[in-house]
Q: What sequence folds into this?
């Protein structure tokens, strides 16, 4: 599932992939494809196949 988010460092809109097979609640680290800084990604399944996603800075 592709989701568009805003990088918390550089502010660019980027698309990330959330694997629906990864469980109803997921937390992982992913690097911004624009500025290469690491985010913490939190994805929670709100409905079957629909995820709410939040990204946070690694230095917070």
A:
């Amino acid at each position: 599932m592709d989701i568009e988010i805003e990088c918390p460092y550089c502010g660019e809109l980027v698309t990330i992939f959330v694997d629906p097979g990864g469980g109803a609640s997921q937390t992982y680290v992913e690097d911004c494809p624009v500025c290469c800084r690491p985010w913490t990604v939190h994805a929670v399944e709100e409905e079957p196949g629909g995820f709410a996603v939040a990204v946070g800075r690694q230095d917070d």
Notes: The chain has a mean pLDDT of 93. The longest strand covers residues 38-47.
